[in-house]
Amino acid sequence: MEQHSPNPDTAKTNPRLDEVDRKILSLLQTDASLSLDQIADRVGASKTPVWNRIRKLREAGVIRRQVAILDPEALGLEACFFVLIRTSEHDRDWAARFLKALRDRPEVIEAHRLAGDIDYILKVQVRNARAYDRFYQSLIGEVKIHNVTALLSMEEIKATSALPIPEAGL
């Protein structure tokens, strides 16, 4: 699992985005394989200023990375489980073991620490229910968990990695 939360001590300030920046970001979120020429043409600018904007957006941490988004079903990963975890353990040692256990398991594609009655929610992508059970047995064998509820997604209705890009001044 990759850590995405910024460290509050090193968090960067939110850069001011103008209309061209927002257009560039929108294009890259839709298709990061676009060439610099294509992006420049679509935003109505020349290549060098567009390249400089993209570089600055990377340096500011607005663009974290560019990736290929794979189809889980094409890879035989047809079962998506949302796993709700409650724990009675909250000490630093338990949290370190738990985070390591999650990071060591590629089938955990998202993990969030929550406020409220549920401590964590995981998104787990596996081949089938038997594969989920192997994951579950392995996880509870490694770290103590008070309660686990697994919810099988019957249908993915919406999934996107594209963020809403705020308008100027918001």
Describe this structure in words.
InterPro entries: ArsR-like_HTH, AsnC-type_HTH_dom, Dimeric_a/b-barrel, Tscrpt_reg_AsnC-like, Tscrpt_reg_AsnC/Lrp_C, WH-like_DNA-bd_sf, WH_DNA-bd_sf. Keywords: DNA-binding, Transcription, Transcription regulation. One of its GO terms (molecular function) is sequence-specific DNA binding. The chain has 170 residues and is of the alpha+beta class. It folds into 2 domains: 19-59, Arc Repressor Mutant, subunit A (Orthogonal Bundle); 73-152, 2-Layer Sandwich (Alpha-Beta Plaits), CATH 3.30.70.920. It is 35% helix and 16% strand. It has 5 helices and 4 strands. The chain has helices at residues 19-30, 36-43, 47-59, 92-103, 129-142, and strands at 79-86, 108-113, 120-126, 147-152. It has a 4-stranded antiparallel beta sheet with strand order 2-3-1-4. A hairpin with a 6-residue loop joins strand 2 (108-113) and strand 3 (120-126). The longest helix has 14 residues, at 129-142. The radius of gyration is 20 Å and the shape is elongated. It starts with 18 loop residues before the first helix and ends in an 18-residue tail after the last strand. The relative contact order is 0.16. Residues 1-11 have low confidence and may be disordered.
Strand order of the largest sheet: 2-3-1-4
Quote the distance from N terminus to C terminus.
31 Å
Shape: elongated
Could you say what the CATH topology of the largest domain is called? Alpha-Beta Plaits
CATH class of the largest domain: Alpha Beta
Beta strand count: 4
Quaternary assembly: single chain
Give the biggest sheet. Answer: 4 strands, antiparallel
CATH homologous superfamily (4th level) name of the largest domain? Lrp/AsnC effector binding domain/regulation of amino acid metabolism (RAM) domain
In what range is the share of β-strand residues?
15-25%
Low-confidence stretches: 1-11
Q: What structural class do helix, strand and pairing data support?
A: alpha+beta
Average of per-residue pLDDT values: 92
What is the domain total for the residues? Answer: 2
Number of helices: 5
Name the helix and strand elements from N-terminus to C-terminus, one letter apiece: HHHEHEEHE
